[in-house]
Amino acid sequence: MDNRFNPVELMPRSRAYIIREEGGHREVDVMSWDVLGGAAPWPMTNVRNLGLPQWRALAAKPENRCLVPLSEFCEWTPEAHDLRDGKKPLKGEMWFQVTDQPLFAVAGFWQPTAKGNGFTMVTCDPNDVVAPIHPKAMITVLAPEDHDRWLQGSYEDVVALQRPYLAERMTVRGPVFPTRGSS
Question: Could you tell me the pTM of the whole model?
């Protein structure tokens, strides 16, 4: 399998590093960001309702859990911006950082698919930093002391960890418009 990919920016169905446990030790793996492996009309990149049978089955099994390492994450602005460049207004990128963890772990699940291993990130209610930009949800950022509990704990532990990260430990920058060459 060709494991080359662009590790700078993660996009749906692209490949990324994940951390999972196998045989009692942690491994770094490369998987596609689509836990269904193309079996749905759109990539399944995020899951939230862990009570649904298909997600409960993944959540209940520690062998299907993973950590997704990130240095920041992006959400689009709710409204398009007129950049006064004669082109159609567009939404900007808002980039969120976790100030107490320059490299942080997001709660995730993985499974084998017909197209190779795929993963998804678990979402939760947004905190006060994310909510103005994306009021429906945010990714579940884990504190370092919760990594073991996520990877090895019970289903109840997983549900308890599905919560927003502390807003006072996050910052946001933007909007930026990389497709127009300006920020």
Answer: 0.92
